[in-house]
Amino acid sequence: MRNLGFNLVSVSQLLKEGFEVRFKEGACCVLDAEETLVCSLLPFSQVFRVDLTSVSGPACCLVASPSAAIWKWHRRLSHLSFDLLVRLSSMGLIRGLPKLKAEKDLVCHPCHHGKMVAASHAPVS
Amino acid sequence: MDTVGPARVQSVSGKWYVLVIVDDFSHSSWVFFMEFKDEAFGFVRDLVLKLRNESQRPMRAIRSDNGREFRNSRFDSFCSDHGLQHQFSSPYTPPQNGVVERKNRTLVEMARMMLDEHRTPRRFWAEAVNTACYIANRIFLRAFLKKTSYELRFGRQPSVKHLRLFGCKCFVLKKGGHMDKFESRCLDDVLLGYASRSRAF
């Protein structure tokens, strides 16, 4: 397929590997042989989308998107902000840091837990 | 320089306070961990003597707040012996000590995030702060010079090839002559930082 921006997961392949896939109205989940949840799928227009926030255990290696490198370096450099990370890699000031591309809407949980502060109220006009 | 603490939880090595020292030119930082605040003098003295050997330009002044760990006779005599000017901020005016106060916040935030990531127990905060300092020296830019503080200090680019995730599982190779042939060759452990004086984790 041309211009396909996503990876497709084949249900028949999952079944072949010994997983169990359960579909319901509005939700779907993939279970392994011991009936523990591997990941859940959320309906997304005509298809189901893997909810990667619910992925646990060895299935984490599913997250092989192009942004894996930026995540890896963000976490290794003790949650350096994504802006500075991309700027540093483009300036070439550090040995061993690969070229990283800026991406939008990256949400890191420890960053939120560690740095969240109360915002002031918007002035009432 | 400034102290942070006391922490709510004692670190595994029995420390309560952090002494943060920042170089005003390169903004490279050093952290030292103390059980009592009066240990600060020893750390500052060692660092000043070490830096005198490292750089050609002599150190002129040190700047701190009016904490009793800095404003005392031992510091006065040390400064007069080595020709250092000891500058103080006005009482209860931490903004005048802003460079190091901001560094405190950066380091504590980085440490908090690293501890949060793998739910590492709180008592490892000292290791987290130390690792944060290690990384901060390598990655943060001096904005108008467009160089990292490591490069300003050592004249070469820092390397980050050896960095790993703080708190990740690691396998420590067992070494020594008294190993059984069928004994496992490594121990499972948690990575808690980088060695400062050797090439190790």
What do these coordinates show?
The complex is a heterodimer of chains A (125) and B (201). Chain A starts with 10 loop residues before the first helix and ends in a 10-residue tail after the last helix. Among the domains of chain A are: 49 residues, no CATH class; 37 residues, no CATH class. Chain A contains 4 helices and 4 strands, in the order H-E-E-E-E-H-H-H. Helix content of chain A is 26%, strand content 18%. Chain A is extended. In chain A, strands 1-2-3-4 form a 4-stranded antiparallel beta sheet. In chain A, strand 2 and strand 3 form a beta hairpin. Chain A is α+β, with helices and mostly antiparallel strands and 125 residues long. Chain B is an alpha+beta fold. Chain B has one domain: Nucleotidyltransferase, domain 5, CATH 3.30.420. Helices cover 33% and strands 18% of the residues of chain B. A 3-stranded antiparallel beta sheet of chain B has the order 1-2-3, with helices on both faces. Chain B has a two-stranded parallel ribbon with strand order 4-5. In chain B, strands 6-7 form a two-stranded antiparallel ribbon. In chain B, strand 2 and strand 3 form a beta hairpin. Chain B is globular, with a radius of gyration of 19 Å. Chains A and B meet through helix 3 and helix 4 of A and helix 3, helix 4 and strand 7 of B.
Brief descriptors of the model:
heterodimer; A: 125 residues; alpha+beta; 4-stranded antiparallel β-sheet; 4 strands; extended; B: 201 residues; Nucleotidyltransferase, domain 5; 3-stranded antiparallel β-sheet; two-stranded parallel sheet; 5 helices; 9 strands; 33% helix; 18% strand
Task: Briefly say what this structure is.
The complex is a heterodimer of chains A (125) and B (201). With 125 residues, chain A is an alpha+beta fold. Helix content of chain A is 26%, strand content 18%.
